[in-house]
């Protein structure tokens, strides 16, 4: 099933969480369940057909799923929603709220999941890495369990309360009358500030709040580890962003040197007029039109880039070499009016200017925001250059042949 990038990230976080002993059930699955899982994947199940697929399974297969999902009662397909059916057919770390109603359905069971989907990927990573670090340093399952329940449990409680509040007009009126409705409509935002506030509440309880010494010891272990993990995470993230920015700047410089040179060569080509060629040149150009005659157009720019490798770091050299590896090739064809065309697309001066304008605008906007990886840059540039590079079946032409032709035309 096609799912959003955010959901994919959440699933990966749950899979990472399954490496912690307390949550190993998220990734359990015997051979019998794996056969059902693969069968479902081969059938390309999604939220529109999961229930239909589930109803096609045998009682034995349903029993296998029941055991894998640790369900108390046998599965009654008639009572299961599409999301509930889908989550029965995937691994535990893939059990999430797919339809966006705020509840995760697994069969007829409804819950809010272990990790809140509303939390950022950054927080989820910090939290999971904290639990892993705690376990690495001797934390017991009790320590991990208490840390999870206290840190994430408040979200589930407040979410449940808010859901009940939204569905009960009488409760809304009563709580507004007593001025406590403001507490119910807020849910926590999971970030470093939330952890700091939670720590303060536990260390300085108010209104008769109480936490046992054993639980407090576990939470102190958690807070100490979280601070360390968070600091390292932020430090590494800042370093990674800096490296990405440096790569982006290096790529930008290389592109700024490359594009004008290619633009100049394309201008030379576009100025050629088929009607002005003599018969020999016209025949030669017609022959070339079925091939890829523009390879040489990147030669000079590539040589300039290669020269710029001198004195650069290995990282910068890698970025420049990425630019050099681009293939600025094309096939040229002529229409019956003697105008250069590319495939079915009219390859006029207007087309060329439009592409170059979009490309330059893209580069300007692309780098203003920063946080760009070079591979992504290259991929996008290749998309922009499809006007010049979409004929992959033709053979490549010797550069010298077309160079001679262009020299004749520009003389």
From TrEMBL:
This is Uncharacterized protein.
